[in-house]
Amino acid sequence: MLSLAEAIERLRSPYAPEDFSPLTGEPILLVALDSDAGAPDAEAIAAAVAGLTALPCPTVALEMEVSRSTAAPLRDHFDVVVRSQEELEPILAATRRTPLAAMALVQLLRQGAGLDIHQGLIAESLVYSTLQSGPEFGEWLSARTTAPAREPSPEPPVLLRRSGARLELTLNRPEKRNAFSAKMRDSLVEGLRAAICDSSITEVILRGSGPDFCSGGDLDEFGTLPDPATAHAIRSTRNPGRLLAHCADRLRAELQGACVGAGIELAAFARQVTASQDAFFQLPEVAMGLVPGAGGTVSIPRRIGRQRTAYLALSGLRFDAATAHHWGLIDEIRA
To answer: Where are the chain's structural domains?
Structure first.
């Protein structure tokens, strides 16, 4: 871990992208924002900001005493800010385990801060597609034990119910904890298109049947598309995140149980998100050698900011409804 002065000096060097890279150097930049250090001048801050933006690795600041830190002007330019060694450990573990995915995640979040929703979704899909052909996802896929095939459910994967001006969309694979499959995606897209085309629908409710809202992408379908380029074309053509954002002002998501991966990425587009007390949230994709691919790098930062999004995705930790409410990821905890 570097001191602030050491980090500023290293970031000035033209060799910094080589020194802090998953290919040729350290896969992470760690900086202690020492409250007793002298305040950097404006020129040093500008150089450090430029360096932080360009590094091909996650940049993490350890800041114990927020109120006293003389490095406050730099704080917002790190990818993650942690307050303790305990918070730091899962970030270190992720960058050691899947350094390419960790790098891609923070680069995507940096760029996404300047993009609109549509542009952000395209950028996310391109990064996700690139990682699908990478070695880390390949290693995760080859190590995964495939569950025995089940008979497909005769029930529709999404239930649509119209009641006056309200349209209710219910994810309906409770036997698989509402894992988000291609068929569920297509059905959700059709329901959202109906809501967008019909101006008499003034309220859209998104729910999940059974004890869980959505346990994330259906792992049985991971790696089954013919190639990453086709996968990107599908996401560009039929993206529920874009449609959810289009009708966000009249959309409410009601969550419970598992809200993992796509289960929170999609819901976060809604104007109002409520959750039961047993709801829990997790972004596990980086550990698979991927990044969130259902719109999470667009929807979640708009609710909780880039740094907290990076922390959730890099750490892969599960967090509860109280934390989600405190951060603003959800708007209300239902009794």
So the answer is: 2-97, 117-144+153-334
Which tokens belong to 279?
């709801």
Contacts of residues 159-166 at CB distance under 8 Å and 24 or more positions apart, as own/partner, are 159/209, 160/191, 160/194, 162/201, 165/200, 165/201, 165/202, 165/203, 166/201, 166/202, 166/203, 166/204, 166/205
Burial class (CB in 10 A: 0-12, 13-18, 19+), 160: middle
SS3 61: strand
Digit-by-digit pLDDT tens for the chain (335 residues) are 898 889 999 999 999 999 999 999 999 999 988 655 566 778 888 888 999 999 999 999 998 776 555 667 788 999 999 999 999 999 999 999 999 999 999 999 999 999 999 999 999 999 999 999 999 999 999 998 776 667 777 889 999 999 999 999 999 999 999 999 999 999 999 999 999 999 999 999 999 999 999 999 999 898 888 899 999 999 999 999 999 999 999 999 999 999 999 999 999 999 999 999 999 999 999 999 999 999 999 999 999 999 999 999 999 999 999 999 999 999 999 98
Cβ atoms of 110 and 306 within 8 Å: the answer is yes
Q: Report the alpha-carbon angle 324-315-18, nearest 5.
A: 135
- Rounded to the nearest 10 degrees, what angle do helices 228-237 and 117-132 cross at? 160
What is the spatial distance between Cα 212 and Cα 155, in angstroms, rounded to a whole number? Answer: 17
CB-based contacts of 198: which residues, under 8 Å, 6+ apart? none
Residue 34: how many CB atoms within 10 A of its CB? Answer: 18
In CATH, what class is 117-144+153-334?
A: alpha beta
Contact indicator for 310, 109 with CB cutoff of 8 Å = yes
Number of Cβ within 10 Å of residue 198's Cβ equals 12
